[in-house]
Design a protein that fits this description.
147 residues
């Protein structure tokens, strides 16, 4: 491929990698938020259970105990739902991470290839300049001998 085409391909790969990195950050942030929410729910449940035990030891009306149990049931459902969301976003996070790694490797490989091409072009140019310089020097020496 010509260099300009390779530069364009590398630029597109860089943009794709950057977009993938942004998506990875968004998914990671969403996963972290859902994980934090799950931790909050679990902590709230533990605190609520502790207060329920304390209240039950002191004695409480059956209606209040029934309300506590109903609330605990709803809280457990919320924890289950949040756990599933954390699992789902965790899977998404892993998929997006793999995609970003792939795009990052592609970008790096293209950049490495471009660097190698630039080095080759530089060496070829330097070799051509040295050849031209040697030919000019040889031509001057030949001209000086003829005089």
């Amino acid at each position: 491929m010509k260099r300009k085409k390779m530069d364009k391909v590398a630029a597109v790969a860089k943009i794709a990698e950057q977009q993938s990195a942004r998506e990875l950050n968004m998914v990671r942030q969403s996963h972290d938020e859902k994980s934090d929410r799950l931790e909050q729910l679990v902590q709230f449940k533990e605190d609520y259970e502790t207060s329920l035990e304390t209240a039950a030891e002191k004695g409480m009306p059956a209606k209040q105990l029934q309300d506590y149990r109903l609330f605990m049931s709803k809280l457990n459902q919320a924890i289950d739902k949040q756990s599933r969301e954390v699992e789902t976003t965790g899977q998404s996070l892993e998929e997006v991470r793999e995609e970003w790694i792939s795009k990052s490797h592609r970008k790096s490989a293209l950049e490495h290839l471009l660097q190698a091409q630039r080095r080759e072009q530089l060496l070829a140019r330097e070799k051509a300049e040295q050849k031209e310089s040697d030919e000019n020097t040889l031509a001057r020496k030949s001209a000086n001998r003829e005089q």
